Amino acid sequence: MGSMFNTLNIGYSGLAAAQVGINVTGHNITNAESAGYTRQRVIQSAQTPISGTIGNGVEITDTKRVFDNFVFDNYVQVSADKEYADFSQRTLEELSTYFPEVDGVGIKADLAEYYNMWQTFADNPDNDAIKTALAQQTTTLTEHINQTQEQVKGLQDQLNNQLEADVNQVNELTSQLADLNKSINVAEAGGGDTANDLRDRRNVIERDLSRLIGSEVSQGELNSNIQIDSNSNIRSGSYTLNINGFNIVDGGTYHPLHLGNEKNDSGFYEVSYERQDGTLLPLEESINSGKIGAIFDLRGGSIDTTTGQPTDGIVQNTMAQLDAFAKGLAESTNNLYAESSSSKKDSNSLELSGDAALASSNLNINQGSFDIVIYDNDGEEVSRRAIEIDATTSMTGTNSIESKINDKTLDDNNDGNADNDIDDFILFNYAQAADGTLRVEMQMTPESDSLGYTFSVQDNLTESGFASGTNFAGAIGLGRYLDGDSASNIKLTTEYENNPTKLVAGRSGSSGDSSVALNMVQQQFESYDFDVGKGTYNSTIYGMFDVTSTYVGISTNTAITQNDTITAQFNATELEYFSTSKVSVDEEMTNLIKYQTSYGAAAKIITTIDEMMQTLLGIKR
Q1: What is the distance between the alpha carbons of residues 314 and 535, in angstroms, rounded to a whole number?
Q2: What pTM value is reported for the model?
Q3: Helix, strand, or coil (residue 389)
Q4: Is residue 128 part of a domain?
Q5: Which contiguous run of DSSP H or E holds residue 448?
Q6: Which residues pair with 281 in a beta bridge?
C-alpha cells in the first residue's frame, strides 16, 4: 500500500511534468518564426508502479520533434529546384534587357539604318556629307554591338564571381555541418535525450547546401515517432552528404571543394573534388541543381583547355552567337569593300606561316578565284588577272598568291605588251610589318601610283550568292572597311574614322560609280555561313542577329515557364512540410493552458496531502 509520502511524490512528478510541458511550449512559441525550427512535443509515461498495482506518478521520457523525414527530403529537393529556377529566371531576364528589339530599338534597328545609309551613299557617291553620315552610322552600329557584348560579358563575369562566393559558402557550411554532427553524436550518446535544436540547425544547413549545390543526405535507419504523430519519423545512424556521389561530409569530417582559376588566363573558376591522393576531379558536370548548377548552365561549365573559355552555357552561347554575327558582318563587308579601288591595301594581323595552305587554315578562305583589276586615272580598266586558290595555295612559295601576282609569263591583256600586266603594277609583300605584326601588303608600284593608277580585288562568284566566292579579302581584312573579328572589337577602320571623305562608293573610283555601295545594300539580303561552336547557321546578317535575340528570348521564356511550374510544386511541398513541423501559435496556446491546468492540479495534490498530514499531526497532539 502506498504511503502519503508516495502520494506527495506523485504530485511532485505531476508538477515537474507540467513544468517541462510549459517549458517546451514556451520554447515552441518563442521560436515560431525561427527559420528551420521544428515544433517539439513532450513524451511522458507512468512511472514504474509500486508492487505492480500502486501508481507512482509520471515521468518525462523524451522531448521529440514533430518531423517527417520523407516530407523534409522532398522539401529540400524542391528547394534546390526552386533556387535553380529563381536564379535562372532573374539572370535571363537581365540578359534579355540587352536585346530590346521588340521595342524597335537596338542593334537590329541600327543595322537597318546602316544599310539605309549605304543606299543613300549609292545615290550620292560623291557627297562628303553623306560619307560622314555613313561613317557615323557605322560607328553607332559597331559601338552598340561592342556595348551589348560588353554587357553580356559583364554578366558572365558576375556569374563567375558569384560562383566563387557560393563555393566558399558551401565549404563554410560543410565545415559547420561536420561540427554539428559531432555535437549531435555527443549529445545523444548513450541513449540520452534527442538533440532537437541541433538537429534543426543541421536541417537548415542541409537545405541551404541543397539550394546552393543540389546536395543530398544519406543516413542510417528510419525510426518512427508514432507517439508524436502518425507521420512523424526521423533518421539516425551513419551520416553522409554528397553531390552526385561525391561525399563532401562524412559524419564529423568534411571534404572542402577545390576552387581555382590560376591556370585560366580569363579568370574562369573551376570546381573540383580533391581525392585523398590529391587528384582533382572536375565537378561541373556533376552539379546540375541548386544555384551553382544554374551558374554553370548560364556561365558555362565546361572550360576549353586551349582557349580558357567556356564551351557551353546560355550566356556563353549568346556571346558566341554575337561574335559570329559580328565576324560575319565584318568579313562579308570587307570582302565587298575590297572591290573599291585604292593605291594600297593591307590586311589584318595574321598568324599564318607563308607556306601554309590557305583553304585549310583557320581563315575562312574557300577554293576558287578572285580578280585583281587595275584602273587608270579616269577609272578605265587597264588590266585584270584571276588569282586561283586551290587546296595547296599559300601566301608565299611556288603555288602562292605572291607567285601568281608576280608571274611575268602571263599576258593579261592578250596584246603582246609585257609592260601592262598585273605584275607590272602591283607589289605584293607578306612579311613582318613595321609594327611587328605579320600582314599582307599590296600596293601600286611607285611609278604607277604617281600616274594615278589604282587597283581593286574582286571575288569571282561560282553561284549567284555573294558567299560563293573565295572570301580571300574578307578573311584577311585586305583593304578593309571594318576592323575587328568579334563583337567586342568590331569598329570602323581608323582611316575612315579619322577622314570619312576617303570612302569610295565604286570599283573604279570614278565620279558617279556606286557599284560597291549598291553591293553593300544587296548584302543585307545575302546568306552566309556563321560558325558558332561546332554548329553552322546559314542565314542573312539580319537572320543571324535574329538567331541570337530569339535564343535569348526563348531561353528567358522557358525559364519563366519552368519557374512557374516549380514554384507551384514548391509552394505545395512547403505547405505540407509546414503543416507537419511548423509551430502553430494557436495550438501552443491551447497546450499552454493544458499544462497550466495540469500544474494547478498537481499542486492541488500536494496541498491536499499537506492538509492530511496536518490533520494526522493534530490527532497525535
Answers
A1: 15
A2: 0.88
A3: strand
A4: no
A5: helix 446-450
A6: 273
Closest CA to 381 of 459, 442, 463, 458: 458
* H or E, element range at 81: helix 69-96
3-state secondary structure of 226: coil
Q: How far apart are CA 610 and CA 67, in angstroms?
A: 43
Answer yes or no: is 268 within a domain: no
The predicted-structure confidence for 442-461, as pLDDT tens digits, reads as follows 999 999 999 999 999 999 99
Q: In 3-state terms, what secondary structure has residue 55? A: coil
- The three cell numbers of residue 214 are 543540389
- Measured CA to CA, the distance from residue 213 to residue 143 in angstroms comes to 38
The sign of the CA dihedral 562, 568, 569, 571 is positive
Q: DSSP character for 507?
A: S
In a domain, 476, yes or no: no
At residue 570, the pLDDT reads 95
Q: What is the pLDDT of residues 479-505, one digit of tens each?
A: 999 999 999 999 999 999 999 999 999
Classify residue 600: in a domain, yes or no: yes
In a 13 Å sphere around the CA of 500, the CA atoms on its Cβ side amount to 18
Residue partners of 3: CB distance under 8 A and separation at least 6:
none
* Bridge partners for 383 per DSSP: 374
Instruction: Give the span between the Cα atoms of 455 and 381, in whole angstroms.
Output: 9
pLDDT at 23: 93
Cell numbers 549605304 label which residue?
118
Q: 1 pLDDT exceeds 60?
A: no
Polymer length of the chain:
621
pLDDT at position 263: 84
Helix, strand or coil for residue 12? Answer: helix
β-strand partners of 58: 46
Write out the residue range of the structural domain in which residue 620 sits.
1-65+593-621
Radius of gyration of the chain from Cα atoms? Answer: 40
Rounded CA separation 158/153 (Å): 9
What is the pLDDT averaged over residues 578-587? Answer: 89
Cα atoms in the Cβ-side hemisphere of radius 13 Å centred on 161: 6
* 52: three-class secondary structure by DSSP: coil
State the average pLDDT over residues 383-390: 95
Report how many domains make up the chain.
1
The C-alpha angle 15, 21, 22, rounded to 5 degrees, equals: 90
> Cα–Cα distance between 301 and 285 in angstroms, integer?
7
